[in-house]
Each structure stands twice: as C-alpha cells, then as structure tokens.
Design goal:
about 240 residues, alpha/beta, Rossmann fold, six-stranded parallel beta sheet, 10 helices
C-alpha cells in the first residue's frame, strides 16, 4: 500500500484543476539558507528545524485560539523561545538577521524549471503564504525571482488565520470566483495538504528535505507526491494534457 501511494498519481475527481495554489516558504523558497545563522547562534544548524517546527506549531495555536500575530513577529518570538529552551540569550542583531533572512530566502533550484513547465501547460497559478504583505518592499517571492509565474500573491494576513484553517484556502478560491474543488494546493507540508483537502481542494506534496508523507489509514493522502516541482509538473501534464 505504501509503495502504491508514493509511486502513483491519484485523482479522485475527473476534471483538471483550474488553479494551482503554491505554498511559498519551503515549497518555493529554501529555508535551508537560514542554516548558517542557526549554526552561528546555536552552534548547530539543526536548530533551524527545531525553530521551524515550533513556528508552525504556534502559528496553528494562535489560529485555534482566535489570536493573530504576523509571521515575522511570531518567527522572532519563537527564535527567542528556542534560545531560552537552550539556556541562551538571543542578541537583537541575530533577531534582525533572522527577520531579514526570512524575507530574502533564495528559490529552490528546481522551482523555475517546474513552474515554467506548468505555465507552458496552461495552468493558472497563485501563491498562498503565511508571510505578511510588506508595503514598499519586495515580497519574499519577488526577492526569489519567482513572482513572474503567478497571477496573484495571497497572504493569510488578509484572513488573519494561518493554514491549515479552511478560511485561508477558501479566501483564495472566493477571491478568484472558483469552487474549492477547482483548486489544487501544492506544498511541501503534510499539514497543508490535509488542510487543503479537508477544505475541499485537491493537493500535491513535494518531498523537500525534512518533509515526508504521513501514511495513516483514513487520513487524506495527496493526489500527487513528487520529489520536486518539475516531477510534479510532469505528472500533472501526463494526467491532464494528453
């Protein structure tokens, strides 16, 4: 069963998705670029994954509690919290370096090739990110040189609810006058595919470093699982562009 889930593209519906909604952080841009900062501060680059895990958990905790703080503020607060866990005081200069790093991460090496294939195949594409809008400054997607592939950049800031809240996914579908089932969420996070599928969307999972499928019977599984965006594009084109 496991090998079948991982090897085969599966689709419950019969219609080609109208819209691909891409997650940004880790999916399109590379969090591993923050490793040197965590190596300097903590003496171990693996602390980045600890911080990121807490960041995801507390973003969800805020939404479930009916609260909201933007991604940069939350990221900085969690950075300090992880420092306290390790008995360290985090210097303000390191907090500012983290905030800047979160806003200027580079694109994954495979992103442009895969996005070009999808655009050539006629797919509409937008992004949905936890990162807030930054007036008078380039977005992380623009900094990574990928904004040209997307017709719009959506932020959960408008909904004041972090993914995997259904509110965030429905916000995008409603803004483009589409039904949820016409949309496919593409992400490297299983919590994001589960959230999207629970909201009525289909989903594609990219197996970036530090992420893997959650193979629990009865849990929604991604419609497509791929190692990178070009492979995802190849499978989408194979399914719908014959």
């Amino acid at each position: 069963m496991k090998s079948q889930i991982l090897a085969n593209a599966q689709w419950n519906g019969s219609k080609r998705p109208v819209l691909l909604i891409f997650d940004v952080n880790e999916t399109l841009i590379d969090f591993e670029s923050l490793n040197p900062l965590f190596a300097r501060v903590f003496g171990d680059k693996r602390a980045m994954r600890e911080w990121l895990g807490h960041l995801v958990m507390y973003s969800m905790a805020l939404t479930l509690s009916g609260l909201y703080k933007d991604y940069w503020e939350l990221g900085a607060g969690v950075f300090q919290m992880v420092g306290n866990i390790h008995g360290m005081d985090i210097a303000q200069e390191h907090i500012e370096a983290l905030k800047e790093g979160m806003k200027t991460m580079p694109a994954h090496a495979d992103a442009e090739e895969g996005l070009q294939r999808l655009r050539d195949a006629g797919y509409r594409m937008v992004t949905l990110t936890n990162s807030p809008v930054m007036p008078n400054r380039k977005s992380p997607l623009e900094n990574a040189g990928l904004s040209k592939f997307f017709e719009r950049e959506f932020s959960i800031e408008a909904a004041r609810a972090y993914k995997p809240s259904s509110i965030a996914y429905h916000m995008v579908a409603d803004a483009l006058d589409l039904a949820p089932e016409q949309c496919c969420m593409v992400t490297t996070h299983v919590w994001d595919t589960v959230g999207a599928q629970s909201a009525g969307l289909s989903a594609g999972l990219l197996k970036r470093r530090g992420n893997a499928p959650l193979l629990i019977p009865g849990l929604p599984q991604p419609n497509i699982i791929a190692a990178d965006i070009p492979t995802f594009a190849e499978r989408m084109v194979g399914l719908w562009n014959r």
